[in-house]
Amino acid sequence: MALKVGKFTVLNHPLIQHKLTIIRNKNTGTKVFREVANEIAELMVYEITRDLPLEDVVVNTPMGKTTQKTLSGKKLAVIPILRAGLGMVDGVLELIPAAKVGHIGMYRDEKTLKPHEYFVKMPTDIDQRNLFIVDPMLATGGSAIMAIDALKKRGASNMRLVVLVAAPEGVRAVQEAHPDVDIYAAALDEKLNEDGYIIPGLGDAGDRLFGTK
Ligand code: PRP
Ligand code: URA
Asked: Which CATH architecture has domain 8-210?
């Protein structure tokens, strides 16, 4: 189930909506937050991979030879934007265990809200892979835009941005900067507040995942 406008899609499957409500709740503790964030990421990836290409392959069952389908096309990689993106990686790998993982470290200056890159470590062949960039929050869009810039600079050309909660401001900013990138969210929220937090959102995703602050 999905609501799609251009290259922005809200994956509003009932299970995704239900689980997102659990992690929005301020009384949900770190353990459950972690588990459920990964479960949502897994459900989202299930939805997003519906269009993966298939090819014919001959397989011998115990009963004889048959031609069946297997995945074809480019290999995949998951790219978490640190820290909070780490909270979605295990969920993605549940469904795509052979995916490589590239890390991109970025933090948002609390005053200016501008992102700062502090770490990039990518698989050597990202230019030949389809990438799922994961981060729970798309707020101003600055972090996602900088992450996509960094990946394109390293030769990546096929990538999708997968977030739990998006603000309209962030969706617009990413679409303007990178109109080729598909964005998938579990929810499109109302707005940003004056501190750059998503309303109603779920608070600071990194702090809630790792128990900091
Ligand atoms: C959060 C979040 C995104 C970013 C979104 O990370 O995980 O990366 O903010 O905001 P933006 O769209 O306005 O750039 P944060 O900078 O808090 O770092 P953390 O994951 O280490 O907590
Ligand atoms: N980063 C977060 O973790 N939460 C927000 O609401 C906005 C940015």
From this structure: 3-Layer(aba) Sandwich (3.40)
CB 159 within 8 A of CB 148: yes
Residue 207 falls in the annotated catalytic set: yes
* Tokens describing residue 114: 């501008």
Of 163, 150, 156, 159, nearest to 182 (Cα)? 159
Q: How far apart are CA 200 and CA 190, in angstroms?
A: 7
Question: Using CA positions, which residue lies closest to atom 3 of ligand 2?
Answer: 204
- pLDDT per residue as tens digits for the range 63-119: 999 999 999 988 999 999 999 999 999 999 999 999 999 999 999 998 999 999 999
For the chain, domain boundaries = 8-210
Whole-number Å distance, alpha carbon 29 to ligand 2 midpoint, is: 17
Residue 175 has pLDDT above 80, yes or no: yes
